[in-house]
Specification:
The complex is a heterotrimer of chains A (139), B (291) and C (636). Chain A has 139 residues and is α/β, with parallel strands linked by helices. Chain A is built from four helices and seven strands, in the order βαβββαβαββα. Classes of the chains: A alpha/beta (139), B mainly alpha (291), C mainly alpha (636). At the B-C interface, strand 1, helix 3, helix 4, helix 5 and helix 11 of B face helix 19, helix 20, helix 22 and strand 3 of C.
């Protein structure tokens, strides 16, 4: 049986952020890092995705959106919070509209720190997430 | 009796081998694409990993009818391909192919999802663009060989392509649409085009998406079969030649995919019709008056 | 003989009774009873005729009937002139007077060659096909009309309730159609031809609104123009060629000898079957209540036009007349199907699709070889049933939802499941494998290639693609899963009865079509061409089509079993995360809830309906003028 980890498809959601991590996530797709060699595809569609990559914090307006797209991902699924904002709100933490990191609304499986998170660590985070995905599938 | 056995063998071979070949072809496609972009790319077996994963995942659905449409799509594609490789009437094969794609469009416009339904309309626009050329290809075969039967077309002394160079080029042109390659990847949005998410496939998850992938493998092999039919004649050497031509055509499609930006659907429609009209008409007229 | 007389005369009797009937229940009973009688008579007659298997002709002494017909013609002329004066229209009056003047001169004064005794009525297998279509489809539409019009007048209180007149006209129409298809004498055909023109004119003007008046007079003058051509053709063939019957005309052998009357008759056929440049009258005919549209589009009127063209097909083959008709047909098929894409009104789409399909039949007649005539007749059968079904369903949908716009049919399958399914059967019948239209298209394409006609091939392949487009998008719209409740359906029992029988016939035709092809169409070709024709559909082709049919039944059944056992999780639709949860609306950036609506594509920015219409009319007119001049000039 082929492992689910051989074909992890990503959904990338950008919350309240400076877009730095955003750029770094896309950098992973470029020839330099080429995540497609692991079978990773950036789908842009929750219904196709296995991994939700979330950058930026959660605010009052995007709370429902994050919840909804997470609910629209078929099981098994994992969430990777990329960058400090997604982990706990980062520099925006004390803003009036910020609720905090992604874990305020959905269960996060892997935290990738950094401001901005480097492509190497993003890939590393995703690879860690794959193990969790595999465990979730077995359950 | 032996003729029926041969047909049966061909049909079974198609049903069993087409998904393997189609998947492999898709894997090679992704590898070559990656190399053209200076990347390492995934394993050539990647499409199989993807499909196995999709089958094992949860399927989210709006209603069971959608799954039924997708099932019908796959079944009709297999039926179409089987008819083709059994050597039946090519025009009827194309008609059934249209019916099959219709089920796909119905599956996509079943949910009230904006992206999916927009994709369905785009898929229809694609059908509008390629359908004339597909029918003209059948007409061309009939003109060149005097029969619609795939079996007899393949048994002529001279390859059909000798009579049908214009129609062949036109057919390769619309193959870009059928293979869902840029610049005509209008309805599905592969790669990074995400302005309407995943278009026609947006609402297909898990098993349904796996069905779609497998259908595409079958469909691609059948379409390459049509390409081969242009070349195959009664001599043995035409078969390796036909396979070579198929590879060249597929390579050209990959090259086009990687060197062109996606166009708007109007340009796709008008250019496909112009190509069909000019190459098709000229080719038919020449056939009529010179032979 | 008795049956033929009954079929022609009885509808007129029924019409007279209905015209005097004001009571709803009496009308209902009369319509039902006469429909049953007509269907029974037509079926009995057809069966008896098919068993004996001979083409037969009747009636030699007709002095009396001729006189009655002449009086009838005079009456029609007076009617047209009076109405034209009342509504201040010049053209119809002039055309009508011109025709009748010519006919009177011809009948009473002209120095006619001594005619041999002729058969005035005639029946072969083509007649049988037409007779069954008119009897079954035509009367079912009348049955449907009983329920429909009651509802119609409840909705539209602004129009005067003239139901006795309406039903009278429907039956006059049927009688005229029977007369037309059974007649062999050209003058008789002409007489019934004129009745259909006038009764369609009266039906279109039913509501008496300004639009209805304009449209009905347009229909009238266009059809009278065709009638004028018909009338000149009669006079020419009698005086110059000494031919007075249709059968003689088509059995001349060499089309060149009779090219002048053939071109004129073909011209008449083109006007009646609403081919370009005369398509506008049929589009305008939609203002009338739906049953009359259904009747005009499916069983009668336009079918009279293509019937005449198909009759003429053997002599048109290979002549300028044939080329003219084939080109007009091909052009109409393509242009009308492109125009259908731009329409969102259900009835407009149906109207354009009628014109388009008739174009294909016309092209078949124009090519005129046995294979195309075979395909043409098959198209006539399938088109009559599916188009009548579609019109009735759209009418019922309009009464139920208050709109016949396709955009308003979003998710109809949830709101009115039964109507939606019937609508889908009708639509599938128009273009999907393995329904009849596709089989015909397959045969047509093959015949066009054999006939070496590149222009028609091009029209056909492009037209097929556009046809596919406008039907599929309609189908998608109906089948969309928009949350909603089933609504109460106001469609009456007689409407259901008619639509149900139609839907059943549509499906049954797919299965029995090999039988029809073998026992009805193949011998028909022998009768028309006077020689044995190879089977158009070979046994192996038949097997493939049956295989397709089996696949279409078996695959969904297996699929259903398969899908029932698949594990699926209910989910809502992806709307970029802002679905309100009911799949119907979303939250916009100001936190307001908005309803989602995805419209179909109509290409209105690419195709300008009026411009394309004008262009096609110009082209078609040019084709007619050029070929008529060459054809007639060459013969003179």
């Amino acid at each position: 049986m082929a492992k689910i980890s051989k074909s992890p498809w990503l959904l990338h959601y950008d919350g309240s952020s400076c877009n730095g991590c955003d750029i770094e996530v896309l950098a992973c797709l470029t020839p330099v890092y080429d995540v497609e060699r692991f079978g990773i595809i950036n789908t842009g569609n929750p219904k196709h995705a296995d991994i939700l990559l979330i950058t930026g914090g959660i605010n009052t307006q995007n709370k429902q959106v994050v919840e909804q797209i997470y609910s629209q991902m078929p099981n098994p699924k994992v969430v990777v919070a990329v960058g400090i904002c997604a982990c706990n709100g980062g520099v925006f933490k004390d803003c009036y509209n910020i609720l905090g990191g992604a874990d305020k609304v959905i269960p996060v499986d892997v935290y990738v720190p950094g401001c901005a998170a480097r492509p190497e660590s993003i890939i590393d985070g995703v690879v860690k997430a794959l193990d969790i995905l595999e465990k979730k599938r077995e359950v | 009796m032996s003729a029926y056995v041969a047909v049966l063998i061909r049909v079974i071979a198609f049903i069993v081998l087409a998904p393997l070949l189609g998947g492999l072809l898709s894997g090679i496609d992704r590898k070559i694409t990656a190399r053209m972009q200076g990347r390492k790319g995934p394993s050539v077996l990647q499409p199989f990993y993807d499909v196995i994963k999709l089958i094992n995942k949860e399927t989210l659905s709006i209603g069971r009818m959608q799954y039924l449409y997708m099932f019908c799509f796959l079944a009709f594609i297999i039926f179409t391909g089987s008819c083709f490789f059994a050597g039946l009437d090519i025009l009827l094969v194309f008609f059934v192919l249209t019916t099959a794609v219709m089920f796909f469009v119905l599956a996509a416009s079943f949910p009230n999802s904006p992206f999916s339904r927009m994709g369905a309309m785009r898929e229809l626009a694609q059908m509008l663009a390629y359908e004339p050329m597909v029918l003209l290809a059948a007409v061309g075969f009939y003109k060149a060989t005097g029969t619609f039967a795939v079996n007899d077309i393949a048994r002529q002394d001279v390859s059909a392509i000798i009579y049908l160079p214009g129609i062949f080029i036109g057919f390769v042109y619309i193959l870009t649409i059928k293979f869902r390659k840029s610049p005509f990847d209008i309805s599905t949005s592969h790669h990074a085009h995400q302005e309407m998410v995943k278009g026609i496939t947006t609402e297909l998850s898990g098993g349904m998406f796996a069905i779609l992938e497998i259908s595409h493998w079958y469909e691609n092999i059948m379409l390459l079969g049509v390409v081969a039919l242009f070349v195959i004649n009664s001599h043995w050497w035409s078969i390796p030649l036909a396979i070579l031509v198929c590879f060249i055509v597929y390579f050209i499609e990959i090259l086009i995919d990687n060197t062109s930006a996606r166009v708007k659907w109007k340009l796709m429609l008008s250019s496909a019709w112009a190509v069909t009209f000019i190459l098709g008409t000229v080719n038919l007229l020449i056939l009529q008056y010179l032979f | 003989m008795e049956f033929v007389g009954f079929l022609i005369l009885f509808p007129f009797v029924a019409a007279a009774i209905l015209a005097c009937t004001k009571n709803d229940n009496v009308r209902k009973i009369v319509v039902y009873a006469s429909s049953i009688l007509i269907i029974a008579a037509a079926v009995c007659f057809s069966v008896m005729h098919l068993i004996s298997g001979e083409a037969v002709a009747y009636l030699e002494e007709t002095e009396m009937i001729d006189r009655i017909m002449m009086c009838g013609e005079l009456f029609l002329t007076v009617l047209i002139v009076v109405l034209s004066i009342r509504y201040k229209k010049v053209l119809p009056a002039v055309l009508s007077l011109l025709q009748t003047g010519l006919m009177l001169w011809f009948e009473l004064l002209a120095d006619k060659p001594e005619a041999e005794a002729q058969m005035h009525l005639f029946c072969d297998r083509l007649t049988i096909v037409m007779c069954l279509i008119v009897a079954v489809v035509g009367t079912l539409i009348c049955v449907y009309a009983v329920g429909y019009l009651k509802d119609y007048h409840n909705h539209h209180t602004e129009y005067k309730d003239r139901r006795p007149f309406f039903f009278g006209m429907l039956f006059v129409f049927l009688g005229a159609m029977f007369g037309l298809i059974f007649s062999n004498n050209l003058v008789w055909i002409y007489f019934f031809w004129e009745i259909t023109s006038v009764s369609s004119f009266l039906l279109i003007g039913y509501t008496k609104t300004e639009e209805a008046i304009t449209n009905c007079f347009r229909a009238l003058w266009m059809n009278l123009l065709g009638g004028l051509g018909f009338c000149i053709a009669i006079i020419y063939s009698e005086l110059v060629l000494n031919i007075s019957t249709l059968k003689e005309l088509v059995s001349v052998g060499d089309g060149q000898m009779v090219i002048i009357p053939v071109i004129l008759l073909a011209f008449a056929g083109l006007t009646k079957s609403a081919q370009f440049p005369f398509s506008k009258w049929l589009l305008g005919a939609m203002v009338a209540p739906t049953p009359s549209s259904a009747l005009l589009h499916s069983a009668t009127m336009v079918k009279a036009g293509v019937y005449l063209l198909l009759r003429l097909a053997p002599v048109m083959a290979g002549t300028y007349a044939g080329t003219m008709v084939a080109l007009i047909g091909g052009l109409t098929f393509f242009a009308a199907s492109v125009l259908a894409i731009t329409q969102s009104d259900g009835k407009s789409v149906l109207a354009y699709s009628t014109i388009s399909n008739l174009g294909l039949i016309t092209a078949c007649a124009g090519v005129g070889v046995a294979q195309t005539v075979w395909a043409g007749v098959l198209l006539v059968i399938f088109h009559a049933v599916s188009k009548s079904l579609l019109f009735q369903t759209v009418g019922a949908i309009e009464n139920a939802t208050g709109s016949r716009n396709i955009e308003d049919m979003t998710g109809l399958i949830k709101r009115f499941p039964a109507l939606a399914i019937i609508l889908c059967i009708g639509i599938a019948g128009m273009f999907l494998a393995p329904f009849g239209m596709l089989i015909s298209k397959w045969a047509v394409l093959k015949a066009f290639i054999d006939a070496n006609n590149v222009v028609l091939i091009i029209f056909l392949v492009f037209g097929s693609a556009t046809t596919l487009f406008y039907w599929t998008k309609w189908l998608c719209k109906v089948l969309v899963q928009v949350p909603g409740e089933a609504e109460r359906n106001k469609t009456s029992a007689n409407q259901w009865c008619s639509m149900g029988i139609h839907a059943f016939m549509m499906i049954a035709l797919c299965f029995v079509f090999p039988v029809i092809a073998y026992y009805l169409l193949q011998p028909m070709l022998y009768e028309l061409y006077g020689k044995i024709i190879d089977p158009v559909l070979s046994a192996s082709d038949m097997y493939i089509m049956l295989l397709m049919l089996v696949a279409l039944v078996v695959i969904p059944v297996i699929g259903n079993i398969f899908v029932k056992n698949v594990n699926m999780t209910k989910s809502n639709e992806y709307m970029a995360g802002i679905n309100t949860g009911d799949n119907k609306s979303f939250v916009d950036s100001f936190d307001n809830v908005k309803t989602l609506n995805v419209a179909n594509w109509y290409f209105t920015d690419m195709v300008d309906e009026h411009k394309l219409m004008r262009l096609t009319i110009c082209l078609a007119s040019a084709v007619i003028v050029i070929f008529a001049v060459i054809g007639i000039g060459g013969a003179l």
